[in-house]
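Sequence in, structure out.
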Amino acid sequence: MHEGNPSVGQGAVSESALSWSLTEGVIELALHRSPCNELGSASLEELEKFATALQVMEPDAHALIIYSELTPGFCAGADLRELYQRSQAMERTQAARGVRDFLERIHRVLNLIDGSPLTTIAAVHGVTFGGGFELALACDLIVADKMARFCFPELRLGLIPGFGGIPRLKRDLGNAVVRDLLLTGRSINATKAQQIGLVSQVVGEGEVLRAARATAAQLRKFDRATAAAAKKFIKPIPHEELRLEIDMFCELFARPAVEAGLRKFVESSDAQPYLP
């Protein structure tokens, strides 16, 4: 069970894949695109709208919480079906340009969240894979339901994470953890994620949004400018590595192995083919 919609306050906006509101200095971004908040072109357009609104709301806020309203989890990652369909419908060079454009756009959104002067909290449960994991890594704090699982499954498709996951994970954790998650493709649970320093707090099932809101309330006690200065000092954005990640992703995307991996995913009869 997971908490319902936040109380609608100042600046409430609802889109098809996500919605946001500003209440008592806390911005809440709710993800609600079925089946598990896959990030495709429609979701990206809405995230771009949110990014624009975020910059307007920031002077009136001190915290941002990102969470999912859907039972399966926080986010299963990129919309691989859309990616495959795009690769089939376009000439390969044109498809590659489209992928690069998509990556550059989503990097801009995640960099805005990463660099926001607000303290940002990802409240995650269930599936937190691929691009969903990367969205969580853009936040300052990850609060996890004990049922949350984290994974980078991209190597099974012949790809690497493309939404900034590698540079952000390297920034936050030791290389041994980064290599294990990236090269094995296996998932880790919330307890393990806390042990390695990925997650700041693990809470009971269905309690993650409540815990994130309690953390946001605690943040209100401190000077916002001081918190923003501290964040800028301890959390630099790895811009150069992020650019290199886009280049590597696009280079790999052109390989036949990727088309084969995407086709296998799309044709899978599993209810949740993104699970390991």
